[in-house]
Design a protein that fits this description.
Largest sheet: 5 strands, antiparallel
Structural class: alpha+beta
Radius of gyration: 23 Å
Number of strands: 11
Number of domains: 2
């Protein structure tokens, strides 16, 4: 990945936990590494095909000078998010915020925080078998698109499917989405649960009827095994109602555990029936 590097950008701000820092202010030094594709700009010599690092510097400087935070960790997060939301060319950024005159009782050159943040590609499944099913699926998409740090990039057609499990209930309407997000997997899970709650989702019966069900299928190519979060979703290879719509938007995506494409998993599942 190509990168544009901003080094030792001097700014002045009012960030710190001590009263004098917030009142008197102090110098902050910011480094920013911006990851993007510069090939077209390099071939055409056209600034419109790249990123104006002068504008990026002004965005950083303006945020440091206008806002006030106790922690430079928060400042670094805000700079990263501002750049990623402002400049659509960016895939990710690495931000270092240095505090040359940190008020601690030892001699040091600088205290600093360095973070890397970027866009993540995620696949989600949607399902509903209560009420106006299509309206609930559309509602989920609208709520995701309303988030500043998350956007829906591809939506499958909705498919009518039979319910999974041994609970007698109405057929489902299912779909799959691709999104890009700045959220961590845990933050995204919280957001999804909040959207389900807004759609009056009740978790009364395992595999039971629901107004809206949203599952995280894949998050980049990460493999996560936590108590409350498992990615990729463990039942993907068993669920035609997940694989069928997903195969229409990402047929050749390779499952990071099984090392098979979505279309291969779907064909294998159908072959077992």
């Amino acid at each position: 990945m190509d990168k544009i590097i901003i080094k030792n950008l001097e700014t002045f701000g009012y960030h710190g936990v001590f009263e004098e820092e917030a009142f008197l202010g102090q110098k902050f030094i910011v480094d920013a590494t911006l990851y993007l594709d510069t090939r077209k700009a390099g071939r055409t010599d056209d600034l419109q095909e790249s990123l104006d690092y002068g504008e990026a510097c002004q965005a950083i400087k303006g945020l440091v000078e206008k806002e006030r935070y106790q922690l430079i960790e928060r400042l670094a997060e805000e700079i990263a998010e501002r750049l990623l939301l402002t400049f659509s060319q960016l895939y990710s950024v690495e931000i270092t915020v240095k505090k040359p005159w940190a008020p601690i009782r030892v001699t040091l050159d600088t205290a600093a925080v360095c973070i890397r943040r970027g866009w993540h590609k995620v696949y989600l499944s949607l399902g509903s078998n209560l009420g106006d099913r299509e309206r609930y699926l559309d509602f989920a998409i609208d709520q995701l698109n309303a988030l500043e740090d998350t956007k829906v990039t591809v939506v499958s057609d909705y498919l009518e499917t039979e319910p999974y499990g041994n609970v007698e209930q109405d057929d489902f309407l299912n779909g799959a989405l691709a999104i890009k997000t700045l959220k961590t997997p845990e933050e995204l899970l919280e957001t999804i649960h909040a959207i389900e709650t807004q759609a009056h989702r009740e978790r009364l019966i395992h595999w039971g009827p629901r107004t809206l069900d949203i599952d995280i299928l894949f998050y980049d190519d990460e493999i996560i095994m936590e108590e409350n979060l498992i990615i990729p979703h463990v039942d993907i290879p068993k669920r035609e109602f997940v694989l069928a719509p997903l195969s229409t938007i990402a047929p050749y995506y390779i499952h990071p555990v099984y090392r098979k494409s979505i279309i291969e998993l779907l064909e294998e599942l159908r072959g077992e029936k």
